[in-house]
Amino acid sequence: MSSLVAAHTRVLLLEQLRVPIGLAAGALFPAIALLAFVVPFAGDDPRAATMATASLMLFGAMSQAIIGLAVTVSQDREQPWNPYVRTLPAGPFPRFAGRILAAVVQILLGVVPVLLVAALFTVAVITPVRLLAALATLVAGSVPFMLMGLCVGFLLTAKAAIAVSQLLFFPLGVLGGLLLPPQILPGVVEAVSPFTPARGVAELLWAVTAGTTPDGVALAALAGWTVLAAVGAVWAYRRDEGRRFT
Fold first, then answer.
1. Distance between CA atoms of residues 222 and 233, nearest Å
2. Which of 177, 211, 208 has the alpha carbon at shortest distance from 193?
3. Neighbours of 174 (CB within 10 A)
4. Nearest to 151 by CA among 233, 224, 78, 93
5. What domain count does the chain have?
6. What is the pLDDT of residues 57-98, one digit of tens each?
7. What is the domain range of residue 129?
8. 43-79: b or e for each residue (b if 16 or more CB lie within 10 Å)?
């Protein structure tokens, strides 16, 4: 089984690398945002620069998780090879695991430009141990967004998935306080922010990188969103399988 998972992961990564524009866009946009909006205004504040770097790492990871998986899954469903793969006796696990592992690799690659900009142009401070903890938190925190991407991908056609995943990703990032500090968000947005999954993961990243105290409401909301996304992804997969193979 492990060899099948590795094979699926390798194939999915090769497919992405052959058309690298999606990976490049997801990696470069957060780095450009850090360079344009954080470096001039908070680049000389160690705490603010560190938290902003963590936020934009998450912003890029959400892009890879939601948009990347939604688009690739929906496009895969439209290929004639996909129904054959899904009827093989190995079952859905190797393909599912391969998708998740491929997404994790893309997320980790995507944080490199952000970290480089932070290291070169800000005074953000983090120890190697905290950095490793932040990367582990980022990967674990990306799970609900991967599940959202899978749900969208199994429910919609490729054209619809592109639009819906973008509409889902960007508002979650803004409401989660990833582009602007939660303290300066408008009152209504600040009130809603703790109930978004992006804010919950951001609270964990800020705690790991800058030593802040996570908001309990945001963490509880994150747990609820994760369960909801998992239920939605499983339901979407079974719905798609029922329509295609029964």
1. 16
2. 177
3. 17
4. 233
5. 1
6. 999 999 999 998 999 899 888 877 777 676 666 666 777 788
7. 2-245
8. beeebbbbbbbbbbbbbbbbbbbbbbbbbbbbbbbee
